[in-house]
Design goal:
97 residues
Length: 97
């Protein structure tokens, strides 16, 4: 029973010591934690900006690729249509003979 009372007393003194601890150390730890959080937030902001720039570049590249593809398709279709028109003209000439 004496051990339980002694242990309880030690725990109570420990809790009292934690509750009435040195505020200077606590404040320093909080300041360090705040500084680390600020640094982490700044890094996240920079990472977000880099991701936004990468997305913008990718979108611009995709837009350019689409423009080139559309131009190639237009040229191909124009050539194919011109060839069909020439074939029809040739068929009409053959029919007249």
């Amino acid at each position: 029973m004496k051990k339980i009372i002694a242990l309880t007393g030690v725990l109570a003194l420990g809790a009292l010591g934690m509750a009435c601890g040195d505020n200077t150390a606590t404040n320093a730890n909080k300041a360090a934690a705040n500084a680390m959080n600020a640094a982490a937030n700044a890094m996240q902001t920079a990472a977000n900006a880099a991701q936004t720039a990468a997305n913008s570049a990718a979108n611009a590249a995709q837009t350019a690729a689409n423009a080139v593809s559309n131009a190639a398709n237009t040229a191909s279709n124009t050539a194919a249509n011109a060839a069909k028109t020439d074939d029809k003209k040739d068929e009409k000439k053959d029919d007249k003979k």
